[in-house]
């Protein structure tokens, strides 16, 4: 395979089999929201559980983003969790990291939700029946 | 990473390499790869947009409170009038996270005045964060509905305004405060009052923690000048 001889095409290969942009955006969103808060944890303990939610949600967003990248088979669950957390940060964490993190997280979750593995490249649609049939059987096996 | 967890386990044995060689320069893109199906993404995007819009509208109407936690970045809060019940104030040191880029030559410690107000009403609230080059400006409460904040705890380096207090007790030990439910370190000077009224409030804050704001007439924008 080409991945063996070229690390860059190896990365493309890796990227092609997971909702890469969705996971990446969700991870960045969580990080951005945490950046806007960056309080030392000592202060957080002082203010109790209510303030802790402001850190819990973006941290979970970050984890969901990473899990989408490294465990893409569970992407539906992670993306559903991701969208709920993203929307929740509007209330708990600085208006969703001043809106930026909220938007990134929502877009990332939607991209992940809409991602399907093993799609035919568009030009392939014109190819012979044999290959289409094989695609069909593979798709059935996956679902 | 662990290839067993990949979405397409069958990929490793894909028999299409000769065909790829056929299609020439587009070898990389003609691999069978995952793809975002727009219609599928829209299934989540549409309700999510609706909920997000709903949250923002409810917040702008003041029906939902939002919570702020900012620290390490100095930000400014101004209001033409603040009315509060349950007021405490004491001095303290804020420690930044280890190696924080904002520490500068302060050694990561900022001497702050901690003000805690149990419930406050603010008119024409303006909050700005300096992001370096541009300011993020949040304004609210300029209409008939005023901004409400509960359990507002701010660590400020500067606080100015025309203040008046009811039933003020000055010189308490910060460990014995009881009006706003927050206690400072023992042996530190403090004061507390039943009610507080500050006109033309201006605060430079280093941290606002666990303050739930209700922000009617919310506007969020970038601006060259702060509050």
What report would you give on this structure?
The complex is a heterodimer of chains A (143) and B (227). In chain A, 79% of the residues lie in helices and 3% in strands. Chain A is mainly alpha-helical. Chain A has a domain at 18-116. Chain B has two domains: 13-54, no CATH class; 65-223, no CATH class. In chain B, strands 2, 3, 4, 5, 6, 7, 8 and 9 form an eight-stranded antiparallel sheet that branches. In chain B, a hairpin with a 4-residue loop joins strand 4 and strand 5. Chain B starts with 16 loop residues before the first helix and ends with a strand. Classes of the chains: A mainly alpha (143), B mainly beta (227).
Helix content of chain B: 10-25%
Gyration radius over CA of chain A: 19 Å
End-to-end separation of chain A: 26 Å
The Cα radius of gyration of chain B reads: 26 Å
Task: Provide the β-strand percentage band of chain B.
Answer: over 45%
Secondary-structure-derived class of chain A = mainly alpha
Q: DSSP helix count of chain A? A: 9
The coarse overall form of chain A would be elongated
Residue-averaged pLDDT of chain A, rounded? 80
Count of spatially separate domains of chain B: 2
Q: Could you give the order of the helices and strands of chain B?
A: HEHEEEEEEEE
Q: Report, as a whole number of angstroms, the end-to-end distance of chain B.
A: 49 Å
Helix % of chain A is over 70%
Oligomer: heterodimer
- Quick check: average pLDDT of chain B? 77
Helical segment tally of chain B?
A: 2
DSSP E strands of chain B, number: 9
